[in-house]
Amino acid sequence: MQKANIPFSAQGLAVKGTYLQEQREILEGVLKGMLEGIAFSLAPKNKGAVIGTIMKQLKLSDPAIAEEGYQDIINGIERKPFPTVEGLRNIQRFMKLRNPLIENLKLEEMVDDHILRMLDESGFIDRLYKTYPSK
Question: Residue 4 has what pLDDT?
Answer without folding.
Answer: 62
